[in-house]
Structure formats: structure tokens, C-alpha cells
Design a protein that fits this description.
It contains seven helices and seven strands. It is an alpha+beta fold. It has a seven-stranded mixed sheet with strand order 1-2-3-4-5-7-6, sandwiched between helices. Helix 3 crosses helix 5. The chain is globular, with a radius of gyration of 17 Å.
């Protein structure tokens, strides 16, 4: 490693740009994070589908048409995220050694942006999402930063975001940009 590269890596480590998020509350629930790899793509596609099942149930499409639609939408979303958030953390959420979700996070100078957070249906509604979000909020508040996320207006997790102090700051059509200012308390 060159001295320039080593200095860059040390600067990144000090700034925390690529460090995993805090996991105090989430760790109590057995949550661990690991970097996404190409081998995770089938899991991520399945996870994505679980977030679209309610919409798919309303279509008259065959299963093969649904699979084709989901595949196209998942690839488009993934490519969009990779292109527009090149410095993000692309994390797989694990519990008991099993992949149970994804967390895509980018840390900016004044805001931590949750690009995406999704959990498999089997672990939803059990406090894991709230614990992950509270950890993220605590980390950002300690740095005097806000946390932002785009959330579909009809997303069932909207009530959780509201309870945690997120407020809409921009209407993006189907989505709202929600932000929680860098407040000290995260209960």
C-alpha cells in the first residue's frame, strides 16, 4: 500500500465515512451488518419482491409476468442507487447468521441519508426496524446531523417514522422526503 493510500484510508477511518452504523439497540436483537456482495443479489431481489407483494396482488398478471416485472424493477432500482449514491454503505442485515434485510446508507456532511431499509416479512413488526433506526438516529445526533429518507406515502412503516420524529419536508409524488433533525434524544 502506498503512503498516499494509507493516508487516505486513515482519513476515511477517522471521518467514519465507511464504518458500519452503530448497532447498540439492534445488536441486542442479534442484528449484525455485513457488506453486500454479488452473491447477495438473489436474496435482495426476493426481499424487494416482498416489499411489492401488495401491489402485485392487485394485478391480473401471471406469476411469470410478475417475476419479469419485479426483476426489471429491482435491477432498475439497484442501478439507480449505485449510480446516484456511489459512496454509500451497502449492507446486508443479518440475524443469527441469516440475511434478513438490507440497509443502504450514505453519510453526508450535514445528513445521514437512509437510501433504503427493508426487512423480510418474518422479522417485520418485531422491533428490529425501530432498533436499527434508533441506532442510526443516535449516531447522527452525536455528530449534529439530520437523518433523511424517502418513504412511500402508503408504506406501513410510516407510523414508525412519525413516532421517531421524522417529518415530511418535501412531497415527491408517491414518496415524501422525511427528515429528523439531529436531536439528542432517540427514545
Amino acid at each position: 500500500m502506498t503512503s498516499h493510500q494509507q493516508a487516505h484510508d486513515e482519513t476515511q477511518a477517522r471521518s467514519g465515512v465507511k464504518r458500519p452504523p452503530l448497532s447498540g439497540r439492534a445488536a441486542v436483537l442479534g442484528v449484525r451488518y455485513r457488506d453486500m456482495t454479488a452473491a447477495d443479489m438473489p436474496f435482495l431481489a426476493l426481499l424487494y419482491r416482498t416489499t411489492r407483494e401488495a401491489e402485485l396482488a392487485q394485478t391480473p398478471w401471471s406469476e411469470s409476468e410478475k417475476r419479469a416485472f419485479i426483476d426489471m424493477q429491482f435491477r432498475a432500482q439497484h442501478e439507480h442507487y449505485q449510480k446516484h449514491y456511489p459512496d454509500a454503505l451497502w449492507l446486508i442485515v443479518e440475524q443469527a447468521g441469516r440475511a434478513v434485510g438490507r440497509l443502504y446508507l450514505e453519510r453526508w456532511e450535514t445528513e445521514h441519508r437512509i437510501i433504503d431499509i427493508a426487512l423480510m416479512p418474518a422479522v417485520r413488526g418485531r422491533g428490529m426496524g425501530g432498533a436499527i433506526l434508533r441506532d442510526l438516529l443516535e449516531e447522527a445526533a452525536a455528530e449534529g446531523k439530520s437523518v433523511g429518507i424517502h418513504v412511500e406515502k402508503l408504506n406501513p412503516a410510516m407510523s414508525l417514522y412519525r413516532r421517531l420524529g421524522f417529518r415530511p419536508v418535501e412531497d415527491k409524488g408517491v414518496y415524501n422526503l422525511l427528515v429528523r433533525r439531529g436531536e439528542a434524544t432517540v427514545d
